[in-house]
C-alpha cells in the first residue's frame, strides 16, 4: 500500500510496547522530526515506562521502519541528532588516545 510520508498511518504502525505488550496510546507518541528521509517518533509506554524510538521512511516499495529502545529523553535524542558528525580530527584524537592507552584508562575512571 502506498502512503504519504506525512500520513498518520505511519504512527499507527507503532502498536504495542515491545517490553510489556501493552497497547500504546496515540497521545503518547511524539513526532520528533520529519524530513525527506522519514519520520522520527518517540513513544513512552504508560505501563512500564520504556521509551521506543522509531524511524519510518516511505519508499516507492512501501514503508520501512526500525525501532530501538532508549533511555534518552526526546530532548537528548534531538540534541544527538543535531550533533556534528565525526570529523577527521575526532578520528585522529581517538587514535592518539588509543596509542597512549589513555582511552582505556579514561573509561576505567568512568566505571
Ligand atoms: Zn511497556
Fold topology:
Elements: H1 9-12, E1 29-35, E2 38-44, E3 51-59, E4 62-70, H2 74-82, H3 88-99, H4 102-110
Antiparallel strand pairs: 1-2, 2-3, 3-4
Bound molecules: zinc ion (ZN).
Describe, in plain words, how this protein is organized in 3D.
The chain has 111 residues and is α+β, with helices and mostly antiparallel strands. The protein has a domain of 71 residues. A four-stranded antiparallel β-sheet has the order 1-2-3-4, with no helix packed on it. A hairpin with a 6-residue loop joins strand 2 and strand 3. The radius of gyration is 18 Å and the shape is extended. The site of zinc ion has 8 residues, from loops.
Amino acid at each position: 500500500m502506498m502512503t504519504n510520508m506525512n500520513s498518520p498511518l505511519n504512527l499507527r504502525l507503532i502498536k504495542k510496547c515491545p517490553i510489556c505488550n501493552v497497547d500504546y496510546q496515540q497521545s503518547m507518541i511524539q513526532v520528533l522530526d520529519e524530513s525527506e528521509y522519514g519520520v522520527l517518533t518517540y513513544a513512552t509506554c504508560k505501563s512500564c515506562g520504556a521509551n521506543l524510538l522509531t524511524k519510518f521512511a516511505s519508499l516507492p516499495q512501501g514503508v520501512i521502519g526500525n525501532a530501538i529502545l532508549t533511555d534518552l529523553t526526546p530532548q537528548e535524542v534531538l540534541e544527538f541528532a543535531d550533533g556534528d558528525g565525526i570529523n577527521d580530527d575526532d578520528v585522529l584524537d581517538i587514535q592518539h588516545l588509543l596509542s597512549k592507552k589513555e582511552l582505556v584508562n579514561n573509561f576505567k575512571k568512568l566505571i
